[in-house]
Every structure is written in C-alpha cells, then in structure tokens.
Amino acid sequence: MMVLRLLKIPKSTYFDWVHYTESQRQREDTILKALLRENWQNNYKAYGAPRLRLALADLNLHHGTNRVRRLMREAGIYSVMSRRFNKPTTTVDYRQRPNLIRHLPEANAWSMDITYLKLSNGQWVYLASVLELQTRKILAGADVKIMDRFFRHRELPDSENFSKPGFQLKTA
Fold first, then answer.
1. Taking a C-beta distance cutoff of 8 angstroms, is the pair 68, 52 a contact?
2. Mean pLDDT over all residues of the chain?
3. Model confidence over 71-102: pLDDT tens digits?
4. Backbone angles phi, psi at 114, to 5 degrees
5. Residue 158 region, left (φ>0) first, then alpha (ψ -120 to 50), else beta?
6. In what order do the strands lie in the sheet with 170-171?
7. What pTM value is reported for the model?
8. How buried is residue 25: exposed, middle or buried, by Cβ count under 10 Å (0-12/13-18/19+)?
9. Are 139 and 162 in contact (CB under 8 A)?
10. Among candidates 30, 38, 79, which has minimal Cα distance to 55?
11. pLDDT value of position 2
C-alpha cells in the first residue's frame, strides 16, 4: 500500500485489479476469435469478414459484420484474397456509327490527338499532333500552354506541309 501512496494511486485501483473478472462479452470474444481463426484456416485464409460471419451463422452464432471485423483485426486475421479488378464499361444508349475508313487502306485520312503533359517545373502543356493513317507518320505537331491556341487556323498545318516527312515542333 506504500507504493500506491507514493504513486498517488487510489487503493480502489489495486482492489479492482485483484478482484477483476472478465465480462460476458470479453469471454464471448475470446471464444469467437478461436472459432474465426479455425474457420479462416480451414478455408485457405481466403475468407473475409462477410464470409466468416456467414460461417458463424451456420454454427447458429449470429453476430454483425462490424463485430467480426473487429475480432479479426484483434486476432490478426485477414483475407489473402483481394478484390478482382473490374474493367469499367462504357454504356451507350444510342446506335454506334460505323467506322467508314477502317477497311480503306488507300484512304488519305488523318487522325488528330491532343494530350496534356506535366512538366518538371509543375506546369501543364498540351501536345497536339496530326497522324497520317496510311503511312503511320506524324505530319505536324505543336505544344501549347492554352488549349484554344492550337485550333487557330494559322497553327493548324497547311496541306503543303503534309508532304514533308516528319514535323517541326512549334512552340507557342
């Protein structure tokens, strides 16, 4: 008791510790942790909280998913499975238009692409290019800081420039 007085701890703290008994919920948690670990190991460590909750329900032990998650976390139980990646799909509610130039290799068609790049100094620039589909060569390109500048008529390549191989990158 001398130590308690020196540490300024009430005597009741000592007696609470001496006469401590686990609560009903703590005893249930200990049993449930053992059952969860057993079910988890018997199922290739692949079960997460929802399936382990269902396994407990098969044993007529009905507990919530959050409680099962908490007990799993305390017992160090985790599923070795991860969620599958589901590729996002595009849903279109109108008929798709046909690709008229796909099967025409002799068609003199161009494709244009605009992408944005982050520079090392933190600024963003837009890189626009024109591709001739027949030869698969880039005919013209420009990098601009403001998107609308590329669409000015003087910045778009002239038909005379398209006969030249490659392109000169214009900076605005």
1. yes
2. 82
3. 999 999 999 888 788 888 877 778 888 877 77
4. -125, 130
5. beta
6. 110-118, 124-132, 137-144, 170-171
7. 0.46
8. exposed
9. yes
10. 38
11. 87
Helices vs strands, H then E, count in the chain? 6, 4
Cα 9 to Cα 48: distance, rounded to the nearest angstrom: 43
What is the Cα–Cα distance from 45 to 37, expressed in whole angstroms? 9
Residue 80's nearest CA partner among 43, 39, 34 is 43
35: which 2 tokens? 């059952």
Length of the chain: 172
33 membership: H or E segment, kind and range: helix 24-42
CA atoms within 13 A on the CB side of 73: 6
